Amino acid sequence: MMRVLFTVFASKAHMYNVVSLAWAMRAAGHEVYVAGHPDLVDMITSTGLPAVAVGNALDMGGSWQGKGTWNQEVLSRGLSAPHEEQLRQGWDHVLGEFTLACGVRYEFLADQSFVDDMVKFACAWQPDLVVWDALTFAGPIAAIASGAAHARLLFGLDYVNRLYDDFRQLYDRQPPEQQDDPLTDWFTGRLSRIGVEYQPSMATELLTGQWTIDPMPSWMALPTKLPTVSMRAVPYNGPTTIPSWVYTRPDKPRVCLTLGVSMRELLGGAMVSTGELLTTLAELDIELIATLDASQLDSAKIPGNVTVVDFVPLNELLPSCSAIVHQAGFGTHTNAVTHGVPSIVIPDPFWDEAECGRLFEQRGAGLTLAPAEFTPEALRTKLATILEDPSYRYHAGEIQQDLLAAPTPHDIIPRLEELTRLNRGRA
């Protein structure tokens, strides 16, 4: 039996990403704890996993996210542009994106108490393996301090590794006064607190783990030379009661409209109202399931063929759907691929959403609508195309089969056990 510590910061999407692997570990007989900020504890325990609170509350969805610098920096990022275009923008762009992608300006990394508490718990509990969410670099530091092996768990495309490659290529070409390396500064300070002197040779392992667990489908994953264990992403949508209409076969094509941050900003803003959007889509001969909260609805009139719900589990809803309109967040597009449902992607600006949309288009399993080009009429036209052209459903079925061919979390446990034996105490 191994002791396995999962680390994750206070984000629902990131927590949901670890649940299937954590439970596979428990089902294999291993002892599993999940460590995160105090405001993640209730979410962890709702999954049936034991929680360890570390650091201070993060309040990702409240006052912290409302800080202007966070919104301005994230929304102005350039990760949505194709990689070649980003490289053409040069050193300043790559340095800025690398720093932001690694999160060193954000409190879930900058908060020293999060790292210190994680290290304190790991040294007391002595895990054999630390599996860390790809943005919780407290994980590898805690592993080094306690002598555990450590693996990084991705939540989307591996932009951290790609940006690190870009950073290294351009760093040596800069004059000394421009050779800024904020990540080395961050790791040097944190490692010194556990009595370890940072060396440049440690950088790759601190950024990407002794190995990486990649839940992205093979056709979406970025090329890499890192030691990697591929794993099928198994959707987890949280504890819920399934409404009876979800598993009732619809009389018309059922379409799910689930809105991420970028779409929530468009709705009710200067570009389009909620009522206008729903009325325009309802002109199609469909049954529309729209995930909208009360603040988005206001006094909008709901057409007869539209069902509005604040939340519905996609894993249970999508088998009955003919299409899904979404923002390409990791959990959402994983549900779409798992059930072979064609997508219209209106990408969020935060991580890999725009690139995922382009990849769906390349595979013929969906269409992309850039937020800057969004109108209800443009969305209706693309949705009609998806529903009328059977090739989109066919290609969505192809990528579904690609996903189902990947090893499940249960399948990879022996490999993780072997890697833990080889790497424990080596950091």
TrEMBL record:
SUPFAM superfamilies: UDP-Glycosyltransferase/glycogen phosphorylase. Keywords: Antibiotic biosynthesis, Glycosyltransferase, Transferase. It comes from the Bacteria. InterPro entries: EryCIII-like_C (IPR010610), EryCIII-like_N (IPR048284), Glycosyl_450act (IPR030953), Glycosyltransferase_28 (IPR050426), UDP_glucos_trans (IPR002213). The keyword Glycosyltransferase applies. Residues 276-419 form the Erythromycin biosynthesis protein CIII-like C-terminal domain. Residues 23-260 form the Erythromycin biosynthesis protein CIII-like N-terminal domain. Belongs to the glycosyltransferase 28 family. This is Glycosyltransferase DesVII/glycosyltransferase OleGII/desosaminyltransferase OleGI. The lineage of its organism: Bacteria, Bacillati, Actinomycetota, Actinomycetes, Pseudonocardiales.
